[in-house]
C-alpha cells in the first residue's frame, strides 16, 4: 500500500464502561465488522445485534450475536441488558422501511405515535430520535468513530494519485454545496465537474447517484470529458455524527471509475473509510485520486 501524505495517531476511544461489551447494531456492508474488529483489538468485547435481512450472516457468525428484526426495540433492549451492554453503536446500510412493514414487538407498538413522528422527516431526524429512545432506556449511544477512530479518513491523499488544482476547486465547490443544503437533511455526496454541479445525492444513495452519472455520460448528456469531475462526500453541517456518517470503500472507487470521474474528495476526519487497503489498491489500479481535505485547508 502506498503511504499516505500525512499520518495521525488514533485518538483514544471513550471510557469502556468498566469493560462491558459494546453493542453493535449491524446493517449491511463491511463497516460493522471493521468496527467490531477495531474494538476487539483495543481489548473490549463486542455483542452484535444483526438486523435480519440486512446484515451478512456469514460475517455475523464470527462474533457473539443476536438476530433481531427491524421494529423490535424492546427485544433488543432486553437482550442488550442481559449481555451486560451499556454502550451502543449503530452502523451499516439499511433502506428506511415503511412503518407498516415493521415487525413490531409490544414495546415498539407502545412507541408507535412517537415513531410515526420520527418517520416524518429526514434520515438525521429519524436516527437522532431513535438514539434518544435508546438513551431513555438506559443506554449510551456512541458513534463508530468514537470507538474505532482509525476508521476515519485522514488528511491528505491515499495511494499514488493526486488531485489537480481544477479538482481541488471542484472539491471546494462540493463542500460548499453540501453545507448549503445540509439544513434540509439531505445530501452527503455531490458530483462536481469544471465547477458545474452534476448530481446531488438523495434517497437513492451514492452508488445509484454515480450510476446516474455513468448513464448520462453514455447518453452524451455531459459536456465534461471522461476523467474530469469529482465525487465529494462530507457530513451535513448539523448532523448527529453518532449516526450515518458518510463512507467510501472499494465499491465507491469502482462506481467513480464507471462514472468517468477523476477521483474522490472527502472531509478529513468526517468520512469513514471501509477496507482501506483494498480501497487504495483499487484507486491506484483505476488511476483515481482519493483525498481527505480538512476544514479551512488552503485550496
How would you briefly describe this protein structure?
35% of the residues lie in helices and 18% in strands. It has eleven helices and 13 strands.
Explain this structure to me?
With 299 residues, this protein is an alpha/beta fold. It has 2 domains: 126 residues, Rossmann fold, CATH 3.40.50; 142 residues, 3-Layer(aba) Sandwich (Cytidine Deaminase, domain 2). It is 35% helix and 18% strand. It has 11 helices and 13 strands. The strands form 3 sheets. A 6-stranded mixed sheet has the order 6-13-11-9-7-8, with helices on both faces. Strands 3-2-1-4-5 form a 5-stranded parallel sheet, with helices on both faces. It has a two-stranded parallel sheet with strand order 10-12. Strand 2, helix 2 and strand 3 form a beta-alpha-beta unit. Helix 9 packs parallel to helix 10 and helix 10 packs parallel to helix 11. The radius of gyration is 20 Å and the shape is globular. The two termini are 27 Å apart.
Rg, please?
A: 20 Å
CATH topology of the largest domain: Cytidine Deaminase, domain 2
Q: Biggest β-sheet, characterized? A: 6 strands, mixed
Strand order, largest beta sheet: 6-13-11-9-7-8
Low-confidence stretches: 1-13
Overall shape: it is: globular
Number of strands: 13
| Text of the CATH class of the largest domain | Alpha Beta
Instruction: Give the strand content.
Output: 15-25%
Instruction: Give the termini separation.
Output: 27 Å
- Total number of helical segments? 11
Supply the number of structural domains: 2
Specify the helix fraction band.
25-40%
Task: Report the CATH superfamily of the largest domain.
Answer: LpxI C-terminal catalytic domain
- Average pLDDT value? 88
The helix-and-strand class reads alpha/beta
Q: What is the string of SSEs from the N terminus onward?
A: EHEHEHEHHHEHEHEEHEEHEEHE
Amino acid at each position: 500500500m502506498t503511504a499516505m501524505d500525512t499520518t495521525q495517531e488514533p485518538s483514544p476511544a471513550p471510557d469502556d464502561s468498566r469493560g462491558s461489551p459494546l453493542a453493535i447494531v449491524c446493517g449491511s456492508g463491511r463497516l460493522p465488522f471493521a468496527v467490531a474488529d477495531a474494538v476487539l483489538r483495543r481489548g473490549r468485547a463486542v455483542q452484535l445485534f444483526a438486523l435480519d435481512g440486512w446484515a451478512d450472516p456469514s460475517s455475523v457468525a464470527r462474533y457473539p450475536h443476536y438476530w433481531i428484526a427491524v421494529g423490535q426495540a424492546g427485544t433488543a433492549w432486553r437482550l442488550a441488558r442481559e449481555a451486560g451492554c451499556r454502550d451502543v453503536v449503530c452502523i451499516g446500510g439499511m433502506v428506511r422501511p415503511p412503518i407498516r412493514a415493521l415487525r413490531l414487538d409490544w414495546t415498539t407498538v407502545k412507541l408507535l405515535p412517537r415513531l410515526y413522528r420520527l418517520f416524518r422527516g429526514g434520515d438525521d431526524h429519524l436516527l437522532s430520535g431513535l438514539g434518544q429512545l435508546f438513551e431513555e432506556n438506559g443506554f449510551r449511544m456512541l458513534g463508530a468513530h468514537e470507538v474505532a477512530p482509525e476508521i476515519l479518513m485522514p488528511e491528505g491523499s491515499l495511494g499514488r494519485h493526486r488531485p489537480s488544482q481544477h479538482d481541488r476547486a471542484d472539491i471546494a465547490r462540493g463542500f460548499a454545496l453540501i453545507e448549503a443544503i445540509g439544513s434540509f437533511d439531505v445530501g452527503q455526496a455531490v458530483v462536481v465537474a469544471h465547477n458545474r454541479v452534476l448530481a446531488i445525492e438523495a434517497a437513492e444513495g451514492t452508488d445509484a447517484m454515480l450510476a446516474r452519472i455513468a448513464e448520462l455520460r453514455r447518453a452524451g448528456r455531459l459536456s465534461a470529458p471522461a476523467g474530469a469531475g469529482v465525487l465529494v462526500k462530507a457530513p451535513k453541517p448539523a448532523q448527529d455524527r453518532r449516526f450515518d456518517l458518510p463512507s467510501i470503500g472499494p465499491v465507491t472507487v469502482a462506481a467513480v471509475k464507471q462514472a468517468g470521474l477523476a477521483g474522490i474528495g472527502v472531509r478529513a476526519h468526517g468520512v469513514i473509510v471501509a477496507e482501506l487497503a483494498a480501497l487504495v489498491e483499487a484507486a491506484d489500479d483505476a488511476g483515481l485520486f482519493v483525498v481527505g481535505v480538512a476544514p479551512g485547508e488552503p485550496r
